[in-house]
Design a protein that fits this description.
By secondary structure, the chain is of the alpha+beta class. The protein contains 11 helices and 38 strands. The strands form 6 sheets. It has a 14-stranded antiparallel β-sheet with strand order 8-7-6-5-4-3-2-1-14-13-12-11-10-9. Strands 15, 16, 22, 23, 24, 25 and 26 form a 7-stranded antiparallel β-sheet that branches. A hairpin with a 6-residue loop joins strand 33 and strand 34.
Length: 690
């Protein structure tokens, strides 16, 4: 049996070769069968589990050029316990033909530390700490590799008997070793007469190390490595969980065709520090961004600090939604309002330029020509009483967004495969399903659409999110049906726009689960009625309000009001309460958690029941009112009196139902003095914003 030192060195050799899953000769980078998919592997030594892991590969960019990004989590075992002894996460960037660019490895567990390697100008720069030792640099050839990858092999002429040599950076010794690869033969292999595999057998040798026999498919996917008592094998999910390697010559079918997308990190994910990742009640992966984060729709801009910057570099881009800068050890993200000026007089049909035409097409994900989609679009956009079709483009877009918001339930993230038709038939969908449904319905009417994905800062967390953009006479207008908004507030950060088919190249939802991501709020600002800017600087984690002059805003739930002169205010988690200078009158504004969709008819029914139930409170009046000038926001208005501590108090109350949260505004004063405060009450009500 090999000594412990020899075994460790051989394990490292195998780990260097793990990412043989490279670009095939005949398959484009974005179409690689394993691209954006979670692939599992297991390593055994003389029949005992020593390591297992998972990786995701995708196309990214490095210094404005395309590159491969391979993100991996791996877990080490000592053979005595079923639990891993430590974990490591890595992120590797290479050119499309496999030349080394950048690599980060972080160890978590018994031996902590991080190593960051950048290849520039013939030097490998090491920035290291903890178990990885000290920082430094070593000279390297211009074409040095991190590993013998499939993309590198694919760039050679693959013929049986061919011999290739490569310079490989040995991270353990911080030197360069020359590795030789000899192709033996191509093997035709059938698996259960259904999945056909053509793979190369190759012998890989490095001076002073055991020879390794490798099997990788003709399109560059590593299946198996054997040598020195070690066996590395790509496996299916069940074998991965069990920590077992299938018999030689019996690869699992799901490792051949397409490993499942978007699986969560395994429960034994020792590489994930406690508290680094948590999940929202809806099931979305979230990144904690502090307890004092303001409501996402309350501000004109939000400034975030993100790290580590190399994680975010290939994921986010500057856009009309946000400006992203990378500065040394951190990245900054300025998320801003996106409410572009839109042609409110635009009518159907619009003249669509040739370059915009692809965004009108019908596809698998956006089947705009399907009869059910056409019927739904007509139902949502036409006048329900006159049956007259809407001719104004902006109004039609708004009607579609509102119809989806009211008729399609929001469900937890379902992945990238749900189509617009799935969402319509099920009457439920995640943000992507809703965005695709909106896109399909809008295209049916003749409005070009495209999809966006990224994250949204939302009630104390950052969640992967999708939304749409509608083209109206030369401008792309953002639309989010999950909140029924045309034009979006600050908090949206763009990762990628889909092509006309509605398919994304980047699995951003999976990226959001990356261990170690950090995102914190630095500052936030909003325009106030006075024309100035109220600014929050995060500090006191118990503070949920910002005050500027006579302006008070509840940051967490996103509502604000103006204080009359001499009145004072106090903010709590979901409440702002202000009191008159003489302490006799008060106003209480509350955010009510829950899913509120009550329209005018439901409110009218509530009024009837209140007229009975409030009799003991001496109800004065209850009715439905228009809370805003255009009648788009109905509210329940109640006026009543009640006894409290022997005093008769009068309350005038408004309940404003809204999706995700409602608001209740209560005006209190002694019944016999209520009229004296009416002017101040009216001023507060008129200033209320949400």
């Amino acid at each position: 049996m090999a000594s412990r030192g020899t075994m460790r060195r051989f394990v490292l050799t195998l780990l260097v070769l793990v990412l043989l899953a490279g670009a095939p000769v005949t398959v484009a980078a974005g179409e690689h069968p394993w691209n954006n998919k979670r692939i599992h592997y297991v390593i055994e030594h003389v029949g005992r589990l020593v390591e297992k892991g998972e990786f995701v590969r995708r196309v990214g960019s490095y210094q404005k050029k395309p590159c491969w990004v391979i993100e991996e989590n791996k877990f080490f075992y000592d053979g005595a316990s079923p639990d891993p002894v430590r974990g490591v996460r890595t992120r590797t960037l290479t050119t499309l033909d496999g030349i080394a660019l950048q690599r980060t490895e972080t160890a978590i567990g018994a031996s902590d530390g991080e190593e960051f390697i950048t290849i520039t100008a013939g030097q490998a720069q090491f920035r290291a700490n903890g178990v990885y030792g000290q920082s430094g640099s070593v000279p390297v050839p211009a074409d040095v590799l991190f590993e013998i990858g499939g993309e590198w092999l694919a760039s050679r002429r693959q013929r049986a008997g061919s011999v290739y040599t490569a310079s490989v950076l040995d991270r353990m010794t911080r030197g360069v070793v020359v590795t030789e690869v000899r192709l033996r033969e191509m093997v035709d292999y059938c698996y259960i007469d259904r999945v056909r595999l053509d793979f190369w057998e190759a012998e890989i040798t490095t001076p002073g190390r055991p020879a390794v026999t490798a099997r990788y498919t003709t399109d560059g996917r590593l299946l198996r490595l054997e040598g020195g008592g070690m066996v590395y094998s790509v496996v299916g999910r069940e074998d991965y969980i069990a920590g077992r390697i299938p018999p030689s010559g019996s690869p699992a079918p799901d490792t051949v065709a397409a490993a499942p997308d978007g699986e969560p990190l395994p429960a034994d994910s020792a590489a994930v520090p406690d508290g680094a990742i948590r999940r929202s009640r809806s099931g979305n992966a979230v990144i904690a961004i502090g307890e004092s984060v303001p409501a996402w729709d309350s501000f004109a801009w939000l400034l975030f600090r993100a790290g580590p910057p190399y994680e975010w570099t290939s994921a986010l881009q500057s856009s009309a939604y946000s400006h992203v800068e990378y500065n040394g050890a951190e990245a900054t993200i300025m998320a801003i309002q996106n409410a572009p000026i839109v042609d409110s007089e635009a009518v159907f049909p619009m003249a669509i330029p040739a370059e915009i035409q692809p965004y009108l097409g019908s596809s698998e994900f956006i089947p705009s020509a399907h009869p059910a989609i056409i019927d739904a679009a007509w139902l949502a956009s036409s006048d329900s009483e006159t049956k007259r079709e809407e001719t104004n483009v902006l109004r039609a877009v708004s009607y579609l967004a509102g119809w989806i918001n009211q008729n399609i339930d929001v469900v937890p993230w379902q992945g990238y495969e749900s189509s617009a038709l799935d969402t319509l038939n099920q009457r439920s969908g995640d943000s992507l399903g809703q965005a695709r449904l909106f896109s399909a319905m809008a295209r049916t009417l003749g409005v070009p659409t495209r999809l966006c994905q990224g994250f949204i800062a939302h009630i104390g967390q950052a969640v992967n999110h999708c939304w749409a953009e509608a083209w109206i006479n030369g401008r792309w207008i953002p639309v989010d049906t999950t909140v029924s908004r045309v034009g979006l507030p600050a908090g949206y950060v763009l990762a990628e726009r889909a092509q006309g088919s509605g398919a994304f190249m980047f699995n951003f939802a999976d990226f959001m689960r990356t261990p170690g991501l950090g995102l914190s709020l630095v500052a936030a600002g909003r325009d106030t009625p006075r024309g100035g800017e109220a600014t929050l600087r995060v500090g006191d984690r118990r503070s949920y309000a910002v005050t500027e002059g006579d302006w008070m805003a509840n940051l967490y739930w996103g509502f604000a009001l103006q204080l009359p002169r001499s009145w004072t205010g106090q903010a709590r988690l979901n409440t702002v309460e202000i009191t008159s200078g003489d302490r006799n009158a008060s106003v209480k504004c509350e955010a009510l958690e829950g899913d509120f969709r009550a329209g005018r008819q439901e409110l009218e029914a509530t009024v009837e029941s209140l007229r009975t139930s409030l009799n003991r409170f001496r109800a004065i009046e209850s009715r439905v009112v228009d809370f805003d000038d255009d009648g788009a926001t109905p509210a329940l208005y109640i006026d009543f009196t009640c006894l409290q501590d022997g005093n008769t108090l009068r309350c005038r109350q408004y309940v404003i139902p809204r999706r995700q949260r409602a608001f209740r505004i209560s005006f209190w004063a002694p019944a016999d003095q209520f009229g004296a405060y009416t002017r101040e009450f009216d001023r507060i009500l008129a200033s209320f914003e949400f």
